[in-house]
Design goal:
Layout lengths: L16 H34 L10 H47 L4 H13 L2 H12 L9 H24 L3 H9 L4 H36 L8 H10 L3 H29 L16
Length: 289
């Protein structure tokens, strides 16, 4: 019997060391363009800092690295831990509420117009303008505690994307599968649990990928007025007031790394949870074929 047309006879089995090595090699090749892009950006930054922008406060990458060493890991852990906690709280609250309301759109169609209008309004709110209002309503946090204002802004930053991604995902369910559930006596809830949720997973995880960096950005924005004594926001303000550009760049780069790590985490979740989507959760809202 001949091998299937789409399988090479000499291809290593998935569970063998050769197969594992091939997967690792493919992963490294996939990461190479991104790594080269980062190195290119650093090179351009370095050249600009010592030539065109030599007379400005633009630091070199080496200067930022030296400032990072001088400040010490403890400085970054003390400040970033507060910001990450605020972002995680807002991420959980905002996405949890978004998934709940997206489910209601399918379970109670009469609520769709209201829920989608709320989602659009949350997206259109100018976060910078409402931050002082939220701070007045919520008040300052206890010393050393996360800011409630930052948590709310983080939640608002993720709400719209997840509502839209979840609703589109739920609606992408195969009509034939929904009919099968109906034939066997299932209602909207059974359709949601057995069919729509599976179909929506790629879209939901794709929305969560985008929401992870957005939550961190919302938390940092909330810290500027949120009354916290520690965090990425206050640290950036202090660095700016003292004209310490190396520290400011170091904090900004650490924030970017944290945002990228959050995005990468959900990209990994997408590969594990939705293998039928090929790990491209952000680009599809469909279920398994």
């Amino acid at each position: 019997m001949s091998a299937p047309a789409d399988v090479r006879p000499d291809a290593p089995a998935p569970g063998t060391p050769a197969g594992a090595g091939r997967r690792v090699g493919a992963a490294l090749r996939g990461a190479l363009p991104g790594l080269l892009g980062v190195l290119g950006i650093v090179a351009v930054w370095w050249v600009a800092a010592v030539t065109v922008l030599a007379g400005t406060t633009m630091p070199t990458p080496l200067g930022v690295a030296q400032a990072f060493v001088d400040d010490g890991l403890e400085f970054y852990v003390a400040n970033m831990s507060i910001t990450v906690e605020e972002a995680v709280r807002g991420f959980v609250v905002g996405n949890g509420l978004a998934l709940l309301l997206a489910s209601l759109v399918l379970l109670v169609p009469a609520l769709e117009r209201l829920i989608m209008q709320v989602a659009v309004i949350s997206y259109c709110l100018p976060l910078v303008a409402i931050t002082p209002i939220l701070y007045i309503v919520i008040g300052p946090p206890p010393a050393g505690e996360p800011s409630g204002t930052a948590v709310v802004l983080a939640a608002l930053s993720v709400f719209f994307t997840t509502v839209v991604g979840a609703v589109l995902g739920f609606r992408s369910a195969d009509p034939a599968s929904l009919d099968v559930v109906t034939v066997f006596g299932g209602g909207r809830w059974q359709q949601m649990v057995k069919v729509r949720l599976v179909a929506a997973l790629p879209g939901i995880i794709g929305a969560l990928q985008i929401a992870a960096p957005a939550a961190l950005l919302g938390a940092i924005l909330g810290e500027y007025i949120g009354g916290v004594d520690r965090g990425a926001g206050p640290a950036l303000v202090n660095a700016g007031q003292s004209l310490n550009s190396e520290r400011a760049w170091g904090i900004a780069l650490v924030c970017a790394l944290l945002a990228g790590a959050g995005y990468a985490l959900f990209a990994l979740v997408a590969r594990v949870v939705t293998p039928w989507a090929g790990g491209q959760a952000g680009g599809t809202v469909g279920g398994p074929a």
